Amino acid sequence: MKTLYLLALALGSSMAAQTITFKGCYNLFDNQNFVFTKSGVDAYNKNIYITTPVDGQPCGGLGSCEFKIQWNNALSRWEFLADTGNGTFVNPNLIYYNSTGNSASSRPPSNTFGLWVENTAVTIGQCGGNLTGTNSTMTGDVSSSSLATSDVTKSKIQVFPNPVSDIIRISGIDNGQTIQIYNVDGRLVKSEAFDQKVDVSQLSAGVYVLKVSTKNFESHEFKFVKK
Predict the structure, then answer these.
(1) Which residue intervals define the domain Secretion system C-terminal sorting in the entry (predicted)?
(2) 171 and 158 in contact (C-beta within 8 Å)?
(3) How far is CA 29 from the centre of its chain?
């Protein structure tokens, strides 16, 4: 798989259509724009976006592709998919995924919010790494602010101390289900059942994202520094 034309999420929302425009992964997809249009909403109230036209996107080694952005609830992440099946997406290729940004929103996160991680198993590292504001653009119907929870609810939640040496504490969440911690590269380094006390003593010093998923499918994310 040589050139995999992919990322160009440009979104210009209007009263009639909600779109995302993307440009990126130049080694595989060249320096071009791809336009995604909202095609529906899934069972978890997450928007689904598919390139328009559905068929005919140049996709390098894959030939003619269709692209899709959707929520993967089983893995709690947004995914950027490429398909060669005329829009069926039966066995699509996962190009990028974002598991740390805006998981509570109905819209996918921008390329500078959270961590859009390149799936090098498919791209063979030809996209130049994770999406950033310097190697890609994503505009339109994307979210760049955290958490689709109210400010009132958010203000009651606290994660402390920060920075932390050994135990980080969580208050204000009484229906937590799981805890996940990601490093700055988007790699999952810790996952366990929810507890108000989380042992981070074994983590290396650095910046991390703590993600708390609740039993009613909400998600709360916080950055913290491990000393």
Answers:
(1) 159-219
(2) yes
(3) 20
Asked if 200 contacts 216 with a C-beta cutoff of 8 angstroms, the reply is: no
Residue 5 within a domain: no
Counting the structural domains of the chain, the total is: 2
pLDDT in tens, 31-74: 778 889 999 999 888 999 998 655 555 665 555 678 899 999 88
Domain that holds residue 65: 19-140
Q: Is 119 left (phi over 0), alpha (psi -120 to 50) or beta?
A: beta
- DSSP type of residue 44: T
Q: 98 and 39: one domain?
A: yes
Give, rounded to a whole angstrom, the gap between the first and last alpha carbons of the chain: 42
Q: CA-to-CA distance for 47 and 148, rounded, in angstroms?
A: 14
Distances (CA, A) of 53 to 11, 56, 64, 192: 15, 7, 11, 42
Provide the token pair at 45: 């109230």
Global pTM value: 0.59
